[in-house]
Design a protein that fits this description.
homodimer; about 15% strand; disordered N terminus; elongated; six-stranded parallel β-sheet; alpha/beta; DNA-binding
DNA sequence: ACATTTATTGCATTCGAATTCAAATGTCAC
DNA sequence: GTGACATTTGAATTCGAATGCAATAAATGT
């Protein structure tokens, strides 16, 4: 049996009914107009200091806070940035999300998070993004040219994170340079029989790194490279290594850290090999797991902090000046010399 | 001289200025009233099927999407849930955030993310939450009684994740039971000289597990337990283990997985011990890293999926029926028998 | 045919803050 | 005291969709 709720009756009493106080409530109590109250919270508004004091006092007393929805509706500024991230990215890179969140909140932006489990969900996410009129978007998920075009149409600035698309701003870590360095040093250390653990074909980062690694190997004279595709997970890396072993390789390049770690476990536990004596393994990312003592992976670390800072800088610039051109920034990763591979000092 | 701005004129012409089309634009083109357009998108509204068709056709043609801000302002429903998570939690549990996000979006809620780097930021976050009139909140950060009270005042339902507070709904994993099981089995396997790696004193989860472990040890007759506090990180666990070693313990209980992993590396790499022959180490969480082959940690796995599902169920229930009482749910973790500890089949 | 119910429809108002405009007040110089 | 000017102020309008209400049209009953 539903007990009698009294919300209806209280409706007209104003504020007594537990509804949040509005600028009108403050105005009424302070004996001023609603405009005056509004001006107290605007940065460059013209208002007498004394009146301002009074209004702020009343506002504090009754606990008035401007309603973000109403502000956004009228001012066309939500102070919200949508962040699109694949669940997978977040899984390997919680750091990226944490940094983005922290920096955005420093700049007084809130984060509307869209964590995709599949890339196909992007269209639905974009729909929500338009409806919510966010001020900008940072996407660590792949966007098709048609999707990128929607951003221009809707006049919403977007910055891609570790992705590219013509006409869109982006921030990424240089895979080509990184893989060239890793492969170059492996070659310089004398490795000749390689194996490659690549990623999903529809993943931009995976394909870029794969291409870069193969290119570097070819330039070093290595043309036969057995390859197994994984899906970025530990398990897939471990399985891939078991498969690659048949080809008798002595140096394995994995397009990310997690699979490289899986490969190390396969080598040591499943195949009884010593790393790096029998087998050199290198990854890419410099994710937290690569630093664990049991792995101490040789890898290329992405400068996450600098990249997220740049992403936000580019985004904010374009939010504040819609005519600013979309800029692309490329960062170099740093080679971390772990103990999972025998590599040379230089890639000669 | 009043500059000839054409907004006024275009207002009626509509849409030529690159602004998103509104329900008025659709109404004008379809030759109906704005109310009719609105009713097309409401679930139980009364509208003639033929007219509905027409309106939807026009809407699709000009790409009309209801503005979420305007809808929220008038209907007092944002369909947004705020998620408060400490950067640390997300770092060890990206899974939690991914699951919450996925389930919430299934239920047509968007996620406004607040990732704290310090617990002291909570007040600022709450302020933002009130301003944005979110429909509900899931908090994996500690809330003081005063903060919990604010939720009641503002009539915003909240569900705590792995935290408790009187008067607030919560979902958590049973630390007491889990630690009792772990410690019981370590005791049953003959361990007598224990060490404890605990966490920050201001962390609820850490203190609960610490208390539970000490209690279980005491009940088993072990009263002298050297203890070192860490901060949940790998490095702190590794350092703690080095420190504990002086006390000559042969079984180490860590209040989370990451520190347990650090402890394993300290034991093997820094101290030259074999795990689990010389030393048993157990953790708590069942986080991704605990499953890595090189560690294969003995731990208690939290049923993340069931917990997140429950959190959302409780939250949605309270969003839909404000009078629903705050419910508390406690889940049992499952003991994962890894190879990092010598434990008995049962905790006799 | 007429009364009565039911389903559609549009008008006008509402949500809460920002902003334009013009009126009101105050300041200063001469 | 007067005019020129800057500063405050409030009334009215705006953002875009939802909804109570009354009017209308259509369907049903007798």
């Amino acid at each position: 049996m539903p007990k009698p709720r009294s919300t209806k009756k209280l409706k007209s009493a104003g504020m007594e009914d537990g509804r949040r106080p509005t600028s009108y409530d403050v105005a009424r109590i302070a004996g001023v107009s609603q405009s005056a109250v509004s001006r107290c919270f605007a940065p460059n508004a013209s208002i007498a200091p004394a009146k301002r004091e009074l209004i702020l006092k009343v506002a504090a007393e009754i606990g008035y806070k401007p309603n973000a929805l109403a502000q956004a509706l009228i001012s066309r500024r939500t102070n919200i940035v949508a962040v699109i991230i694949s669940a997978r990215t977040n899984f390997y890179y919680p750091e990226v999300l944490a940094e983005l969140g922290a920096r955005l909140s420093d700049k007084d932006f809130r984060v509307l998070l869209f964590a995709l489990s599949q890339e196909s969900e992007v269209d639905g996410v974009l729909d929500q993004i338009w409806r919510h009129s966010v001020d900008g978007v940072i996407s660590a998920a792949r966007l098709s040219p048609a999707q990128v075009a929607q951003f221009t149409e809707h006049r919403v600035p977007v910055v891609l994170y570790n992705r590219v698309a013509s006409g869109a701003a982006s921030v990424r870590c240089d895979s080509v340079e990184g893989e060239r360095d890793l492969v170059g040093r492996l070659l310089a250390a004398g490795h000749r029989r390689f194996g490659l653990i690549s990623g999903p074909q529809d993943n931009y980062v995976a394909e870029e790194r794969r291409g870069a690694a193969l290119m570097a190997l070819m330039q070093g004279g290595v043309t036969q490279v057995p390859e197994v595709r994984g899906d970025f997970t530990y398990e897939s890396g471990r399985a891939a290594m078991r498969e690659l072993h048949a080809s008798g390789c002595e140096a394995v390049v994995s397009v990310n850290d997690m699979m490289a770690i899986g490969a190390m476990d396969a080598a040591r536990i499943d195949l009884g090999l010593s790393v790096p004596q029998d087998l050199s393994i290198v990854g890419f990312d410099g994710s937290g797991a690569s630093r664990l003592g049991a792995y101490d992976l040789t890898t290329v670390r992405q400068p996450v902090r600098r990249m997220t800072d740049a992403a936000i800088e580019l985004l904010v610039k374009r939010i504040e000046d819609a005519s600013a051109p979309p800029e692309q920034r490329l960062f170099s990763g740093s080679l971390e010399r772990g103990s999972s591979a025998r590599i040379a000092e230089q890639s000669d």
